Amino acid sequence: MNDKVVITGLGLICAIGGSADECFDNALAGKVGIKEVESVEHSACYAHIGGENNEFVTPDGEDRASALCVKAAKEAVADSGLDVSAAPSRVSVVIGSCVGGAVSIEKFYRDYVADPASAKGEDVLKMPISAIANNVALAFGAQGAVDNVANACAAGTMSISIAADLIRSGKADAVIAGGSDPMSSLAFSGFHALHALDSEPCRPFNKSKGIALGEGAGVLIVESYEHAKARGAKIYCEVLGSGVSSDAHHITAPSPDGEGMQAAMERSLANSGISAADVDYINAHGTGTPLNDSSELGAMLRVFGSEGKVSCSTTKSMVGHCLGAAGSVEAVMCVKAIERGMVPPTVGYTEEDIALMREKAGDFDFVPNKGKARGVEYVQSNNYAFGGNNASIIYAKEGAPRKLAQPNGERVFVTGFGIVSPLGNTAEQYAENVNSGASAARCGNCGDYISSVGKEDFDSVGIKLNFYRKLDKLSQMTCVSGKRALANAGIEVTDDNSKKIGIVAGTSDGPQTDIANFQKGIIEHGTQTGSAFLFPNTVYNAAPGYFSIAAGVKGYNVTLSNGAASGIAATAFASRVLRTTQNEAILAIGADEDSETVHMLYEKTGAIAAGMTPGDGAVTVVLERGSSADKRGAKKYAEVLGSGFAHCPSEFGRYGCADKLKEAISLALAESGVSAEDIGIVMTCSNGIKELSDAENAALADFAGAEKVNVRALCGECRAASGALGIAHAAMMLSGDIKGGRGDYALVLGASVGGSYNALVLKKA
């Protein structure tokens, strides 16, 4: 385990500057970059302000989220002196985002509303969150794991935590990590619909009336200490432990008691081996909404007390809320605070405000109006998001005392499934239909493979009408799949175990139907008419968020989006989470929807004409520590042995090189301690597109003796759901629930447009 993880490079662009130093200097001076918004039409809205960087012009043909991120990444890579080309397979990219290519989404649907034929496939390829990390990898030639974190406003923090995990698990030497989100009509209209915007520059923890939206990108080079020292890199600080939790309370509002926020803070401290008394500075989430501010303040006071020993500020008071980029923008501020021995302020306080805060929070130090000098050895950065997701991370001066939580040495087993697919809505039904050779449900008009859930499914898992009526199709399938997975595994969620059960979800495209409906509505009727009903469902992590609420799951909660391989990526990452956190079970979910909108989008990209048949579904794989499974006497379907990731820097929309799929396979086999000859089952990933079929055929030349199975031939290309279904199908073949199979080992493959390949090895339990 590479225990020591460090930061060696910083890049930042936001409303108060175009570089890390400029932004931090302006933050120390209390400069406010929140002003009249120029990029979104808002004449009929009650709020008109936000934090834009109008000096940065998006290059022609590029999406703004990707362009902002590449700009910040270039600064960070240059600052670190990292030569990606020296060992590109050892450099990964992890980027967080909330709205992804929202500016391109607006452009596409403006064209589509005017004339459907004029809307361009090239704009569709700029829309997904998964395009951002791909574009960063392409800019630098990175060829390690390439992934996107889609946990809305906690995504930037989680990206750095995942980067540290990749390094500590030996899967990368360096990671280009951060977050990016643009100012967009989608986000502005959505928060306006929720009446969550402030008509004046936001004043968190003070005049808590609402948020001011911001835009920007923060990127950090996260690196193993040994790698950084070997190349003589400057080291800013260390990355210690992180904490992630779920409220299981409400899709947009935090739990009033701040229990989930407090849990994330306490877990980050425990995983770092430090105490609350050690922390010198907190960069709070501090959005400025009444619900967030009251919940977060209560949680911080319980963890840190009100004696004024710790300084706390929220830089959102100057740059606005940068959504998925917030955690990485703030991470750069935290690292600079350690480097300079200066903490930035929370602006907007009068003397009267300060007196009122003392009545409410004692001597808790909010660093009013202007930055202050103080020794900074440990910093905690906190971010929270729609879906009740909470994330906290600790940064420390190099060499500061700490005792990081160590891997627990546990084996990880598959102990249950929940399957919503075109071939059945339970694991038992799916297996029966596969064994009998039954045909999957298909759309009569378009030929797509279609999953469906209805009242009978909701009733069977105890989801009430007043809950499921809020859900889009993606969330409906996910909730049914997740609840059935828990039942299939024999896990009952209780107050005692709810914090030890987590979620890692993967989705390729997220809720594209509700995104389209929301965006088309404001194009036709104005920014001020955004739907408060639809907007919460436009974030990629809404589906697992709803599931956490439905099931009462309060442990780890992360949503990944790296294209069709996301379901496999979720399972691989969930296995590592179980070995390094307090969770005893993780529900690894792969889910993607199909609809008229989704079909149209894939037609526009040319994927359907090239041979792909879309499908949809949600598949949940229950992963459990061996000790937990043994204690419960659970059935073990298979053991997760190892995984591999490799990336061929390609334009988003292409699959890229066969040698990278072969590399991913080799890495998975090596970690698992098996050879190609040991593999009896291969779950393939080809989807009818010749480029991918050719790459797969070349990569599988050494597996002639294995039985090849492709769930896409049964259910269509269900993207992330197909990846997770491949894992479930393989595990049920190994256990004998599905007929066929050879030997004791299965290899599951995944591929995503842009050139990302994933491989995972299972062993018969």
Which secondary structure elements does this structure contain, and how are they paired or packed?
Layout: E1 5-13, H1 20-28, E2 35-36, E3 49-50, H2 64-80, E4 91-96, H3 102-114, H4 121-124, H5 130-140, E5 146-149, H6 155-168, E6 174-181, H7 185-193, E7 216-224, H8 225-230, E8 237-246, H9 259-272, E9 281-283, H10 290-304, E10 311-313, H11 316-319, H12 326-340, E11 342-343, H13 351-361, E12 372-373, E13 378-385, E14 389-396, E15 412-420, H14 427-436, H15 455-460, H16 465-468, H17 473-489, E16 501-506, H18 512-525, H19 542-551, E17 557-560, H20 566-580, E18 585-592, H21 596-605, E19 617-625, H22 626-632, E20 638-647, H23 658-672, E21 679-683, H24 690-699, E22 707-709, H25 711-715, H26 720-735, E23 745-752, E24 756-764
Parallel strand pairs: 4-5, 4-6, 9-10, 9-13, 16-17, 16-18, 21-22, 21-23
Antiparallel strand pairs: 1-7, 1-8, 2-3, 6-7, 8-14, 11-12, 13-14, 15-19, 15-20, 18-19, 20-24, 23-24
